[in-house]
Specification:
This protein is an alpha/beta fold. It has one domain. It is built from three helices and twelve strands. It has a six-stranded parallel sheet with strand order 1-3-5-7-9-11, with no helix packed on it.
Amino acid sequence: MKELRLHSGEVFERVFVNEPPLDLRIVQEADSRVKIHVVNFSEDSEYSEILNKITVEQQGEGCVTEIYGLGYLRGEDHVETETHVRHIVGGGESKQLFKYVLADRSQGAFYGELLIAKDAQKTRTEQVNRNLLLSREAQMRTRPQLEIYADDVQASHGATTGQLDESALFYMQQRGINRDEAYRMLVAAFLKDVLETVADEETRTRLMDAIDRVVE
């Protein structure tokens, strides 16, 4: 496990793309900011199984935590992401947005733990997991876990798993876009809103282009 402590006012921002399994713990002091993106694309090489684990603990007031993730999985690849965001004191914010697209016999999992301690009043949090299954054999497991012990907070969460919208495909075909191209456009659009949150323009453009290449 890699451990990192952010002192008052410090910023940690990182984009992890197809890196080895991630095991990261960050402790935030007052007014520090964390922004992490975890991106997993299936490669054309041999089968892979990846576990990403991110733990962030806000120990100071005024902290901001943002964790984003996306995966486009094919074959029999398996990617599992586990997050633990803990608000120990009040006045902090956190946002989590994870999206997965699964084709063939691939498998994905998202386990998100969100803890708001008793003294963490005035905390604002959001946790969202959206998943798109492109085959009958693909599997996705999602388990949000909220533990809220403070009463003056704003907390929301949501998780959905479904298939591509046939009505949207039909709509695009009616406007002259063939089905295969419409399919690729919808899948790419589903993922790209995660990448719009990447601050660095060069990195954002490179990842947008990568999605266009890998989506079939």
